[in-house]
User: Which sequence fits this backbone?
C-alpha cells in the first residue's frame, strides 16, 4: 500500500516537473507543411532567447523590419546567438505566397504560418508588426509597430539578457 | 521504517502542493485592450454626415490564461456606439452597449484537445468553413459549442465542431455541425521521412436553420463537402481543393436552387533566389451564410477572399476587388526575385464572369485585372526605395453595384526612406493614379518622420484633381512603448470599400478625429 503511495507521489512529481510549457499549446505550420506546437518550440530552446516576430506579406513595415534584421542577422548571431521565429499571419488569401515570398527575400531565419490566427489570438496580438522576446518560458520584452531603428533596440535588449 | 516512509510521503505531498501553487502563479496570462474611437464633424466638401452624438467607439478587451494543458478566456466588447459603417445590427446602431461575448475553456493534451464555449476554426483554406474574427471589418462568427480534436495516430488528425454562430451580441438561429480529417499520406504509407510530403483532407459541414414557409421542399439543412490534396517537395508544391455545397436558396443568391461549387488550385516553384506562385480559383453560388436572410459581411459560413494582391497605399486602395461569390473564374500569378540588395516582385491577377452559370471553367467578360511590378532597393545603410507600377481594370458596375462603367487605370508610386541618424528616419511617398473614367486622376503624397523607438508623425494628402477637386488630407502620429500603441489622426476618410484580407465592407465618407489604442500583455 505504502509502495503504491510512493509510486503515485513519484509519478505526480514527474508530471509536475514535466509540465514546463507555460505557453498555450497552439499549432503553427512550417513552410514544409508540418504542424508544430508553439509551446514546445519555445520551451525547447532553453536558455537561448527566442524572438517571435508576427508579420504578413502585405504589411509594408513588417517586411521592412524583417528585411533590415536579415541584413545584419549573421553578424548578430556571431555576437549573441538567438533564435528568430517569423510567424506569418497571412490567412488563406495570401498564405500560399509566403513560401515563395520568403525565397524571393532570401531570409535566413525560421518562418512559420498561423493561417487562422490561432497563435495571434492566444498571445493577444492586435496589430502587426509585433515582436516578443521569450527567454526561459517568459516573455521578457515586447514591442508593437515598427519604425526604422527599432531593430537596433531589439538587439540591444537581446544582448542584455 | 514504515513511519519514516509515511512522513517522507507527507512531506513530499506538501512540497508538491506548494510547488503546484507556485506553478499556478507561473501559468501564462495574456490579455489585450483594443480601442478605436472616431469623433465626427460635418464636412460638406466630401458629403460626410456625422451621427447625432458625433462619436463612434469600438472597444475590445480580452483575457486568456493557460496553465499546463488547460486554457480559459473571455472577451468583452463595447460599442459606444459603433463607428460609422460598422456592420453592427441595424437596430443597435446608435446605441451604447457592451457585453461579455466570448468565453471558453480548453484542454489540450498530446492526442486529444477539447474546447467548450466560443471558438474559431477553419477547415482547409476556409472555402468550406471558417469561423474567425476581424475587428476592422466587423466579422466575428465564432461558434458557441464544442470543438473536439483527436490525433489517434501520427498521420491523422480529426476535428469535430458543433455549435451556434455568433451574430454580434446574439446568436444566429442556426446550428452548425462539421467534421474534418487531415491525413498525412506520406507518413501513413512510408514510415520514414520522405523528400516529398503528401497530405490530404476531407471536410463535411452542415447548417440547419428552421424554415417555416410554405415550400415543403425547401432545404432547412444545407450540407457541404470538401476534399483537398497537397504535394510538397523541396522546391515545388501543388495544392488542390474542391468544395460542393447543396441547395441553399437565400436572399443573397436570390433564392437560387443551384448547388454551389468551388475549385482552388495553388502551385508554387522556387529555385535559387527565385519564387513563383500560381493560383486558380473558380466559384459558383458560394455565398454561404448561417442565416438565409443575411447579406453583406454578416454571418458568413465560409471564407471566399479576393485572391488578388493586397495593397497598402492610398491610390492602390481606390479600386480594390471583392470576390464575386455568385460566380467568378480567374487566378493570380506572383513572381519574387532576390537580386541581392534589391528585390523584384511581379504580380498579375484576373477574374472573369462565368459564361454558363455553374460552369466554373467558362470565362466571360472581365470583372477585374491587376498587373503590378515592384522594385525594392537598399542603396546603403541610409537610403532605401520602393518603386512600383500598377495597371488596374475595374468593373465598377459589378464590384460596387450601380450603373457605373468599367475603369482602366495606371498607378505609379515611389516610397523613399532616408535614415538620417541611427534612430531617426524620414519617409516620402509619392503616388499618382491616371484614369480617364470615373472621377479621373488622383495624386497622393505621404511624409513620415520616425524617432525610434517611440514616436512617429505623418502628414498625407490624397487629391482627386480629375473631377471633384477634393483633398483627402490627414495628419497624425503614434507613440509606441513596449506593447502599447496610441495613435491620433485628424482628417478626411474617403467613402468606398474598406477591405481586410480580401473581404470588404462599405465605409461612408467621414471627417474628424480618430484615436486608436492597443495594449497587449503576456507574462
Assistant:
Amino acid at each position: 500500500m505504502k509502495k503504491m503511495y510512493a509510486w503515485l507521489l513519484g509519478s505526480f512529481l514527474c508530471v509536475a516537473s514535466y509540465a514546463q510549457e507555460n505557453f498555450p499549446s497552439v499549432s503553427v505550420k512550417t513552410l514544409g507543411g508540418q504542424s508544430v506546437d508553439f509551446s514546445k518550440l519555445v520551451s525547447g530552446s532553453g536558455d537561448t532567447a527566442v524572438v517571435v516576430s508576427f508579420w504578413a506579406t502585405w504589411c509594408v513595415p513588417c517586411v521592412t523590419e524583417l528585411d533590415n534584421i536579415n541584413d545584419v542577422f549573421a553578424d548578430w548571431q556571431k555576437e549573441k546567438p538567438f533564435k528568430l521565429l517569423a510567424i506569418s499571419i497571412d490567412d488563406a488569401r495570401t498564405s500560399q505566397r509566403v513560401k515563395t515570398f520568403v525565397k524571393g527575400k532570401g531570409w535566413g531565419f525560421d518562418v512559420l504560418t498561423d493561417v487562422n490566427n490561432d497563435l495571434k489570438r492566444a498571445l493577444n496580438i492586435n496589430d502587426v508588426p509585433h515582436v516578443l522576446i521569450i527567454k526561459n518560458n517568459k516573455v521578457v520584452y515586447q514591442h508593437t509597430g515598427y519604425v526604422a531603428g527599432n531593430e537596433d533596440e531589439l538587439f540591444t535588449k537581446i544582448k542584455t539578457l | 521504517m514504515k513511519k519514516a516512509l509515511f512522513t517522507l510521503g507527507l512531506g513530499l505531498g506538501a512540497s508538491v502542493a506548494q510547488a503546484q501553487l507556485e506553478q499556478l502563479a507561473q501559468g501564462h496570462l495574456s490579455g489585450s485592450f483594443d480601442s478605436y474611437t472616431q469623433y465626427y464633424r460635418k464636412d460638406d466638401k466630401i458629403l460626410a454626415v456625422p451621427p447625432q452624438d458625433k462619436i463612434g467607439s469600438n472597444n475590445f478587451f480580452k483575457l486568456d490564461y493557460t496553465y499546463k494543458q488547460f486554457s480559459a478566456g473571455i472577451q468583452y466588447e463595447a460599442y459606444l456606439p459603433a463607428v460609422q459603417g460598422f456592420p453592427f445590427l441595424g437596430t443597435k446602431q446608435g446605441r451604447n452597449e457592451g457585453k461579455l461575448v466570448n468565453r471558453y475553456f480548453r484542454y489540450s493534451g498530446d492526442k486529444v484537445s477539447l474546447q467548450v464555449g466560443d471558438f474559431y476554426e477553419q477547415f482547409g483554406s476556409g472555402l468550406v468553413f471558417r469561423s474567425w474574427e476581424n475587428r476592422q471589418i466587423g466579422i466575428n462568427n465564432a461558434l458557441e459549442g464544442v470543438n473536439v480534436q483527436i490525433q489517434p495516430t501520427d498521420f491523422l488528425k480529426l476535428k469535430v465542431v458543433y455549435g451556434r454562430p455568433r451574430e454580434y451580441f446574439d446568436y444566429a438561429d442556426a446550428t452548425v455541425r462539421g467534421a474534418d480529417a487531415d491525413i498525412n499520406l506520406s507518413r501513413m504509407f512510408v514510415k520514414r521521412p520522405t523528400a516529398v510530403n503528401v497530405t490530404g483532407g476531407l471536410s463535411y459541414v452542415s447548417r440547419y436553420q428552421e424554415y417555416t414557409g410554405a415550400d415543403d421542399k425547401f432545404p432547412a439543412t444545407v450540407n457541404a463537402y470538401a476534399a483537398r490534396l497537397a504535394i510538397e517537395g523541396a522546391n515545388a508544391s501543388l495544392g488542390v481543393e474542391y468544395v460542393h455545397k447543396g441547395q441553399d436558396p437565400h436572399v443573397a443568391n436570390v433564392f437560387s436552387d443551384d448547388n454551389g461549387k468551388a475549385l482552388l488550385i495553388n502551385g508554387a516553384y522556387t529555385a535559387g533566389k527565385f519564387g513563383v506562385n500560381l493560383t486558380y480559383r473558380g466559384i459558383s453560388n458560394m455565398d454561404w451564410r448561417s442565416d438565409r436572410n443575411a447579406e453583406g459581411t454578416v454571418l458568413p459560413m465560409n471564407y471566399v477572399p479576393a485572391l488578388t494582391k493586397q495593397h497598402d497605399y492610398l491610390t492602390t486602395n481606390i479600386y480594390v476587388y471583392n470576390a464575386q461569390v455568385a460566380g467568378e473564374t480567374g487566378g493570380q500569378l506572383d513572381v519574387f526575385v532576390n537580386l541581392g540588395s534589391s528585390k523584384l516582385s511581379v504580380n498579375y491577377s484576373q477574374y472573369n464572369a462565368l459564361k454558363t452559370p455553374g460552369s466554373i471553367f467558362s470565362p466571360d467578360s472581365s470583372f477585374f485585372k491587376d498587373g503590378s511590378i515592384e522594385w525594392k532597393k537598399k542603396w546603403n545603410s541610409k537610403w532605401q526605395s520602393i518603386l512600383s507600377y500598377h495597371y488596374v481594370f475595374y468593373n465598377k458596375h459589378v464590384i460596387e453595384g450601380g450603373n457605373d462603367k468599367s475603369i482602366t487605370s495606371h498607378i505609379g508610386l515611389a516610397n523613399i526612406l532616408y535614415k538620417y541618424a541611427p534612430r531617426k528616419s524620414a519617409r516620402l511617398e509619392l503616388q499618382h493614379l491616371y484614369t480617364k473614367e470615373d472621377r479621373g486622376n488622383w495624386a497622393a503624397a505621404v511624409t513620415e518622420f520616425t524617432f525610434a523607438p517611440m514616436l512617429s508623425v505623418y502628414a498625407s494628402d490624397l487629391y482627386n484633381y480629375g473631377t471633384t477637386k477634393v483633398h483627402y488630407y490627414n495628419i497624425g502620429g503614434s507613440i509606441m512603448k513596449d506593447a502599447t500603441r496610441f495613435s491620433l489622426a485628424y482628417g478626411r476618410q474617403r467613402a468606398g470599400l474598406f477591405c481586410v484580407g480580401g473581404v470588404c465592407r462599405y465605409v461612408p465618407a467621414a471627417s474628424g478625429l480618430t484615436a486608436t489604442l492597443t495594449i497587449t500583455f503576456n507574462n
